[in-house]
Amino acid sequence: MLRILLGEPPRENSGVLAEAMDNMAKVASMLRKEMNAHEDRDHEYRKLEIWTRGLISSLDELEQSWFAAAFYRRSVVAGYMDDMSPDEQGEYARYVYFYKNGFIRVFSLLDKLGTVLNSLYDLNTSKVKAHFSYFTVLRQFQLLKAHTPLATELEGIKNSYREPLENLRKRRNAEIHYMNAEMTDDLWQRHQGLHDRIQLEDLDSHLEDLKQGVEMASKSLSAAFRYSNEQWHRNKAASSLKPRQLHS
User: How far apart, in whole angstroms, are the C-alpha atoms of residue 68 and residue 98?
Assistant: First the structure.
């Protein structure tokens, strides 16, 4: 959608993004077939299908936010706020909007994935923490020693993106719990020199962190849904099981 609004051609999925989309689509299709074949009186299939399709949309929106932020960043050439023309200030504001939208979406998407995994594998993470995050779900896998291959793969993905995730987390926390992220940079500079000009943050470094966040989310989704699809077919070959029974 955003590419069309920006005059760009539609995205052609490739790489890990395509893998994640494909693995999620396979699970959604499988759930739809089970709904058609069974009555699904407790609406378990339907709930999981809705959640899965929601994750497909969330990943699409996250990638588009990164793309739009990168698109507007190209028009920002001044190194200081005071040197920007009104047009460039507008482009910078649009960059900031989509960049912030992006780093908030990274953690929102991961937490949604955590909710799906918690339900699929009966992890009961809410007993550990009422309002749990994706990272709490990863710890719960380890605590219960459940589905070790999946837990190990997801933990490895998380650890390989530790630095960009931590950078994004700090900016997310500043945006949501303290003040907007770019004001934090500005205030730090004002503290260094009250009358100094405000230098822009490192836009390219921030965009790279967000790109890494998109990759981490894509890899995590791809691994989780590939494993879930494999588990489903393995259990299906043994007996007819409900989605909530994947933990068995």
Answer: 6
